[in-house]
Amino acid sequence: MHSKSIYITQLIYIEEGKEEIFHQFEDLAIPIIAKYKGKLLLRIRPTENQVIEKSIDTPYEIHLVEFASDNDLQDFMKDEERKRFLHLKEKSIQSVLLIKGIKL
Predict the structure, then answer these.
(1) Which pLDDT belongs to residue 2?
(2) Consecutive 10-residue runs of the chain (104 residues): their mean pLDDT?
(3) β partners of residue 16
(4) H or E, element range at 63
(5) Which domain CATH number covers 26?
(6) Domain, as residue range, for 84
(7) Whole-number Å distance between alpha carbons of 78 and 74
(8) What's residue 39's pLDDT?
């Protein structure tokens, strides 16, 4: 049976003043996605004037990522190279809202 692609949407909230550390992490982590049959489809940095309505804080960035399967996503999360740089993520990110789904 052919497995469906899995889609991850992340609303990323950054610690104030830690943007550069976050960018360092992203520069290292994003290229690793392709090793696991993944693709960064969209990376948005919204501003307040782009938000029409909200009941949560506006995130620093929004990412939409596609993986060929859930197993590929899990393998990406366990990647040893990515784990070596997680300290940058932990220093810079306040929180992440991760939404996992499939294309309908």
Answers:
(1) 56
(2) 84 97 95 97 96 96 97 95 93 96 91
(3) none
(4) strand 61-67
(5) 3.30.70.100
(6) 6-101
(7) 6
(8) 97
In a domain, 11, yes or no: yes
How far apart, in whole angstroms, are the C-alpha atoms of residue 98 and residue 73?
A: 13
In the block, residue with structure tokens 């300290």: 87
Domain membership flag for residue 91: yes
Helix ranges (DSSP H) in 1-97: 19-33, 70-77, 80-84, 86-92
Structure tokens that stand for 69 in this block: 């399967």
pLDDT for res 1: 47
Distances (CA, A) of 59 to 27, 37, 71, 104: 19, 26, 27, 25
Written as one letter, the residue type at 48 is E
Closest CA to 79 of 13, 42, 28: 28
Q: Model's pTM, two decimal places?
A: 0.90
Does residue 25 belong to any structural domain of this protein?
Answer: yes
Total structural domains within the chain = 1
Q: Is residue 1 part of a domain?
A: no
